[in-house]
UniProtKB/TrEMBL annotation:
<dbReference type="InterPro" id="IPR015797">
    <property type="entry name" value="NUDIX_hydrolase-like_dom_sf"/>
</dbReference>
<comment type="similarity">
    <text>Belongs to the Nudix hydrolase family. NudK subfamily.</text>
</comment>
<protein>
    <recommendedName>
        <fullName>GDP-mannose pyrophosphatase</fullName>
    </recommendedName>
</protein>
<keyword id="KW-0378">Hydrolase</keyword>
<dbReference type="GO" id="GO:0006753">
    <property type="term" value="P:nucleoside phosphate metabolic process"/>
</dbReference>
<dbReference type="Pfam" id="PF00293">
    <property type="entry name" value="NUDIX"/>
</dbReference>
<dbReference type="GO" id="GO:0019693">
    <property type="term" value="P:ribose phosphate metabolic process"/>
</dbReference>
<dbReference type="InterPro" id="IPR000086">
    <property type="entry name" value="NUDIX_hydrolase_dom"/>
</dbReference>
<dbReference type="GO" id="GO:0016787">
    <property type="term" value="F:hydrolase activity"/>
</dbReference>
<feature type="domain" description="Nudix hydrolase">
    <location>
        <begin position="41"/>
        <end position="173"/>
    </location>
</feature>
Amino acid sequence: MTKPQPWKILASETAFQHRWYHLRRDTVQLPNGQVIDDYFVSVRPAGALVFPVTAQGEVIFVRQYKHAAGKILLELPGGMFDADTEDPGEAAARELYEETGYSVTSISPLGTLYDNPTKDTSVVHLFLAEGAALTGQPSWDETECVEVIPIPLAEVLPKLMSGEIKVSCSVSLCFMALQVLQQRVSL
């Protein structure tokens, strides 16, 4: 059985550049020697996603229109940030506040995920945040119209299992955060 090997990048160029999107075209050599001259990669900034829990035991979700899917979806608050200039935890807290007006008293990293490692560079940092409280007003960008939805902690798993929460990183973070919270109760 052969072990996976990284591909060798022979050349790389920007195929398309816009303030919202960067597409790179790589020429790569596969481990078997085959050369592919048009492997396209979406170059995306890092993301931060937060599972914010209030003192009343509610999790703050957002519902918003997602154009590529063409649907209004329920998900956890989060967004993109520049990993070279901003700490992931600070970015998560900032994104939470910008989208919902909620601040948190503590924020703990739960891990990182690759959003779509076959075709894009995005790494998403996942956080459990506690002590979430409404302390201000959201400040959305021109593409956002967000409905803030507090959901009782006990209703999160049923919403996951029914498919009401279906954005992949939100699903992953929900399961991770619920596991951490359940382990605390079990101790």
